[in-house]
Amino acid sequence: MGEIQNALDDHIPYRYQEEVFQQAQKENIIAALETGSGKTLISILLIKWIASQSKSCGKVIVFLVPRVTLVDQQKETIKKHAALKVTKLHGAMEIDLSDRVGWKRKLEKYDVFVMTAQVFLNLITHGLWSIKQVSLMIFDECHHTRRNHPYNNILREYHQLPPNQRPKIFGMTASPIWNTSKPEASISELESNMNAKIMGVRENIAELELNTPKPVEVIEVYPLPPEEYECPLTALYQCLEIIDSSTWRELDIPFDTLKNRYLATYNNTGPYAAAMFLYLELKRHLIRLNDADVGIECDGQGDLTSAPCASVRDERSLIRVILDEFRYYFPPDPFSHEIPVAVSLTWCTPKVKCLVDILLRFESQSPTFQCIVFVEQRQVASTLSKVLLVIPEANKRLRTGYLVGEGVNSDGVARESDRVRGDPIKLFRDGHLNVLIATSVAEEGLDFKECDLVVRFDGLQHMIAYVQSRGRARKQESTFVLMVRQDDEALMSKYHELKASEEAMASHYRTRHLNTSSEDDSDNETDDEGYFLDLVDRERYVVPSSGAVLTYDNSISLIGRLCSLIPHDSFTPAYSPLYEGGFQSTLRLPSALPLRAPDLVFQGPRKCRKKEAKRAVAFMAVVRLRELDVFDEYLLPVSSDQSESDLPLLGDRSKHTGDVPEKLVVNVRDPWCMGETLWLHPVVVSGHTMAGLVTGTSLPCTEVIYGGRAIGILPGKILQLDDEIAHERRKSMEQYTKRAIEYSVTASPFDSFLSLYLVPITDDYLPDFQRIDFLLRFPKGCSDWSDAPQNSDEYVMMCKYRSMSMHTLHQIRHDLTPLSIPLEGSREPSSLTYRDHWTQLWSKRHKSVTISHEGPLVECWHLPRSDDGSYPLNPSEVDRQPMNTASQGRLFPFAECLWMPIPSQIRQLFEALPALAQRITHEYRARSALRDLGLPPIPVNLLIETLTISSSGFSFNNQRLETLGDAVLQLCTTVHLLHKYPNRHEGQLSDLRQKVVSNRYLFHRALDNGLERFVNSEVGVVRKWRYVIAKDASSSSDIPSRFASREYPRRSLQDCMEAILAASFITGGIEMALRAGCSLGLEFGGPLPWFMRYKQISTSTRLPPLMMALEEKLGYKFKNTYVLREALTHPSSANRLDGEDCPSYQRLEFLGDAILDLVVVKYLYDKFPDATSHELSLSRARAICAPTLAYLAITRLELHKMMLIDSFDLNRAISRYIPILGMLSAPEIVEKWWKYDAPKPLSDVFESVIGAVLVDSGYDYERTAAVTEHVMEDVLEALSPSTAKDPISQLMEWCSGQGCTNVTFEKKLKEDSTKVGVAALVHGTVVVGPLFLTSRATAKFVAAEHALEILQDPNHPCSLTSLCVCTSSMAIDQDLELPQNGTEESYKSVLFLLSQMNDCLI
């Protein structure tokens, strides 16, 4: 004990704390001590003692708290006073339950885990941790351990372990008795649940009372509120009440809930605080709506939907105007404390005035005043803290903040803590705040040592609230104030009852175990009869492979979660399990689950309680569904909250688990280097060898078209250089190449060492050092023209005052001299002489310019530099046409000109060198990728396109291939998942597929394979010469580095993955795509072709007459009638009766959706080779959207006549659309898809029939694609990349072009109905509508189309010229910009109320 006490520094335990600690060492106990008595210090003593035991090695200590707000406090306290590694966990941290490896690492890394109880329960349930790995469990505020609280569920698992494997238990509470009417039963239940004894201080009571003084308790009575307030801000609520309720529903603003909370706040704190709450909540919702997506989007299932855009903004404009009128009275946003006006107490209730008087009275008595005010509702805490800051009587003395739960509650009302100014708990502890307004979140556990006043602004409900809130007053001589309205006798009575019973109950549990006997356990039952009998009969199931635990407590929620994931359309109710019976329950699972009939119905055992009977049968069902792999080994139904890196089907976890930046810095494969061995590759121009390309790598033979000429390299050979002069020879080749690059490409010198040389060669394919040395004799040009070759193609010339600009000689003009007058029409401006022009021009760059008066002039042609490294990947005839590179004739004084021995052919090669080097780089990487990644034989050009990202700027990139590859990935993954998980429904499979096709998953697979080394990210333009040796590499290294550092976006890797799949598919169909996917580590089930993997069983049963016509329309004959029947069965008709299994089409629809996606994209890819990725996606969406597929289902296949449906509403809806869709042509449905909102099951059944063809054909994709293209022939022919704009865009653009900007859409409620329609208005006049369709999105499109026709008709009474008054004077005040989408009466009412408010304020 002495060592422990010395380690605690200034936190030396008192004797009463040592008393409890010593008892905790001997047995499991519940420390029942007053708040502020130091229970946490006792727990730290126990933590240190446990951590010092050898038997605790390899185990962790778990400190459990009931609220998130306590996690940080307890973690910091333990971390400060114990030399252990402490971490925290709570639900707000977005914990990933599927990260198995991550949790294992956490266990190994930390000693103490402070967490909320639900997080720990989840870890146990899903097998991430086991209680056996814990040496000590501490339960803070352990009085919650009852019924189905997470504390109690954790301890039920604890009781399943053998005693020698159980951790020690330590509970802490100030109020162990939750039921004051039955204290003995409360205590017995708590002790039984926790396997611990409640212990109070027995021997050192005086010391305890000395160190935990209770506050003085005071009753403050306040008067009744007035009937009316002298506050004009009630007009805000009156204005908002005018807005139609359908508008609030459409904007997804819970105004009814806000109204109730407004009224509650009004009654509690007064009109100003209530109006502030309403104002800020609506501002928050408007911010949310401003962040919403705008325009037409694809919902991910092929359906095009109209997201709320202009119409939503129109509807909320009136709300914005109303709020804008009140902006000078409230904070500017929901997170601000800046209120621009002073708030009079006449705008508040007498209750608030009483609170202000209390706070000011106590503040004046203490220079370190600190107070907590407890309220019941969050909005009261928020608004009250702001109001107190601007009440003139208090604003200079009170520094307030508020503490509530975080997020948005189930009603859509914000409940943020006061985080805008920092952590309110920390600010209060540090003294920056002296008043903290809090809800019950601050009642339990939070330690505020300097708090000397606690005020219960709202009443007391139970003993725990009384004890816990009073316990926040920790300072000596503190005060607890209970505010009571003058007529509230019930609250006064409740308070006196709690106060009287508190001491009696404390005495009871202190002396409870002084005389222990067997009779003490006689009264150990709860309120429910048979509760303990049911507990005895409970079962428990542990998954052997993972340790995940199934209990009666979590089985019902697991079944419910599974059913909630089953997709359903608007004609099928949401799926849920059906429990029948009373004390013996029967569970019927939805028939939409792809299970045999016996696995859909479970009969449970008899139980004493009905609730327990439901738990028992749910338990039986989960065990069976786990055997069928419906639940995975962690008892998860594989939902969207899982991480794809640890799905069971993914095999080994990726090696790359950390955060990855948006930009990757990667060493990519690069052939350009220098080593002891050099390779010389002859460079061929149009069949003639012109030069040699020297580098440290044997390069692949390749060719590029540049300037209309074919330039390529031949196989290289090792360059043999004499050892004695090798260094000088290398240096000569480098200097020659540098000079030529500077003149031909960069226009500026550079110091880096080159990684390639381009030099003239002899007939023996050796460097022509004679010509190289000749150039290096005159590195800046030669002025002696007597040595110049006669043939001007053998050299280039330059002016010494324009040294980096090369020219070719055209002729010498002996008829002109520097003193000649510039010829008419020449390039030179009007100067007296050529000499004057040049002197003025070149003096800008050179300090001294001396131009000779004599000598002829030289007429030459400028040779442009070429820094363009781009090239045509698949050159056309146009690319092969010769191109003249010389241009722009110039005149220079002959005396100022130099010549340089660079022949025309060599100069042209250097002009093409950036493109040639880039092509070589691309091909080298492509061939390396084929080899290193084990890819199937994809053509080199196609693989180059695959590895080239869009940011490189080349005329080719992988974006088109990425679009096609995404469809290949979807189909290959879908087929594999369907067979791997035959008992999982479409919702589960969709979640699984989403994981293994997600960008994050593809990215990690790419990193695992090393794909990042082969990405082409360099831009085509080479302004800075990139083919140089890195500074940290040596030009003579024994092992040259064939890598170069590049930076490119992270997303590029997943694009390359999908593009590789597309390239494989183009080359060798699905079979080659499967091989490529497996090489890349994707979940395709192996490289074996589908027809060899999945054997389809043929049935001899004849096809039912109802379905015979379908074969003829498809052009395909089914071998398996079962699969076709499944494809035509709507979920409403699915059954498992009379021993005949007949599932619905949902799994086949899941497959067919992926097939259609690939077939359509491949068709578009081939038909429109110049279409962009965006154009391909847009055309695809039109082809596979729900209206188009419904059209095909009715017109081409007549599936409505064959569908098996057991839904009157669906049959009626389909019958309505049969004549509508039957009258359309394919081009019409492609162009006008938005006009038709056919029942979704029509498109679903079309997809399922296509899926059935693939299954029945033995997974013959080519045959299935042929059938699909045959059925969709008309629609596919109608597709085009030049997609017309939707009617809304056309209407807005046309009206804007006519000068009218006042076009809006308004939702209107149908008379005597709740149905909402859409109308199109111009300047408030209804032009079209309201239209009442099954979809408001469709109605809006139709309204826009009709409105455009009417507005463009000059003879129509509602033409634009008749309605538009944009050029006229506005009738309303221009300072008040009212929208035009509301009714005239609404605006008049709002203006009247606002004017009244302004008059009142004035």
Automatic annotation (TrEMBL):
UniProt domain RNase III: residue ranges: 926-1069, 1107-1258
Record-linked SMART domains: DEXDc, HELICc, RIBOc
Listed Gene3D superfamilies: Dicer dimerisation domain (3.30.160.380), P-loop containing nucleotide triphosphate hydrolases (3.40.50.300), Ribonuclease III domain (1.10.1520.10)
Domain of life the protein comes from: Eukaryota
Keywords in alphabetical order: ATP-binding, Helicase, Hydrolase, Nucleotide-binding, Repeat, RNA-binding
GO BP annotation list: siRNA processing
Alphabetized GO MF terms: ATP binding; helicase activity; ribonuclease III activity; RNA binding
Helicase C-terminal domain mapped to chain residues: 354-522
PROSITE patterns named among the record's database cross-references: DICER_DSRBF, HELICASE_ATP_BIND_1, HELICASE_CTER, RNASE_3_1, RNASE_3_2
InterPro entries given in the database record: DEAD/DEAH_box_helicase_dom (IPR011545), Dicer_dimer_sf (IPR038248), Dicer_dimerisation (IPR005034), Helicase_ATP-bd (IPR014001), Helicase_C-like (IPR001650), P-loop_NTPase (IPR027417), RNase_III_dom (IPR000999), RNase_III_sf (IPR036389)
GO cellular component, one term: cytoplasm
Presence of keyword Magnesium: no
All residue ranges annotated as the Helicase ATP-binding domain in the record: 20-194
Annotated family: Belongs to the helicase family. Dicer subfamily.
Protein name: Dicer-like protein 1
